[in-house]
Amino acid sequence: MSDGLPYRLIATDLDGTLLRDDGTISPRTRAALVAATEAGAAHIVVTGRAVPWTRHILDDLGYEGLAVCGQGAQVYDAGQHRLLTSVTLDRKIAGVALAKIEAEVGPLYIAASRDGLDGDVLVGPGYAVTGTLPSTPFTDVSDLWAAPLNKLYIQHPRLNSDELAEAAQGAAGGFVTVVMAGEGIVELLPLGLSKATGLSLAARRLGLKADDTIAFGDMPNDIPMFGWAAHGVAMGNAHADLRAVADEVTASNDEDGIAVVLERLLSEQA
Prior knowledge:
Elements: E1 9-12, H1 14-18, H2 27-38, E2 42-46, H3 55-61, E3 66-69, E4 74-77, E5 82-86, H4 91-105, E6 109-114, E7 121-123, E8 136-137, E9 149-155, H5 161-172, E10 176-182, E11 185-190, H6 195-205, E12 213-217, H7 223-228, E13 231-234, H8 240-243, E14 248-249, H9 257-269
Parallel strand pairs: 1-2, 1-12, 2-3, 7-8, 12-13, 13-14
Antiparallel strand pairs: 3-4, 4-5, 6-7, 6-9, 9-11, 10-11
C-alpha cells in the first residue's frame, strides 16, 4: 500500500471514464490523480483505443507512464513513445469469424486497426467512425488483410451494439473475443485477450499485482479488468452490465467520478 492510498495502482479507462464527454480531463480529476501519485500510487491508462488513437491524449496530459491500449493488445510506454508489447489478430481466423457472424446476421460494416505505433485504422463502406478520429477508407476487402491487425470493428445496419455483440459472440465466440466498448463499437479481438491481460502485464512491469489495484470504467469491455482488480468502480454513466459487477458506482465522467473516489480514499488515509 502507498502511505496515503489503500491501492498502489490506479487503472482508468479513457472514453466515458477519465475523459469527459467533450474529450477533456477536468482540472479536479487531474488534481486528484496528481495527489494520488504523490501519495505513492501508479496510474495506468487502460483503453480500447489502439496506440495511434491514444498517443495524442497522453501527450496532451503530459502522461509519461505505461498505457494499455487496443483492449489489452498493446502495452505502450508513453514517456518513451515506445511499444513494449503487441498482440495481433490471426487474419485467417478473423476471416472465419466474420464469415460466421455474417452467416447469422447478414452483411456487416467493417473497420480494422492495423498493428504498430502508426498503424492506420481502415474503414470500409458504411462503417460510421465515432467522433473525428483519423482513419483511412478502403473499398477493396483485400486491403483489410494486407498487414497485421490488432482487431476488427463491426457494425450492423439494423442491430444495436448490444444485440450485435450477443449475436457475434454466439456465432464466433469460439474463434475470437467479442467486446462491446461503446455504442457503435463492437470489436473482434484475439481469443482470450482482454484489458485484464494487458493490465496484468503492465502491472508486472511495475512490480504490482491485482491486489494493489483499483480500476475505473464504464463499458462491458471493462468487465475483465474489474474481475482482475481488487476493487472495480463503475462510472455513473456506465453500462448496466458493468454496474452489475462493480464494487461501487461513482459519479459520471462529466461529474468527476474518478476524483470523487480518489479524494475520499485520500481523506480516509489522512
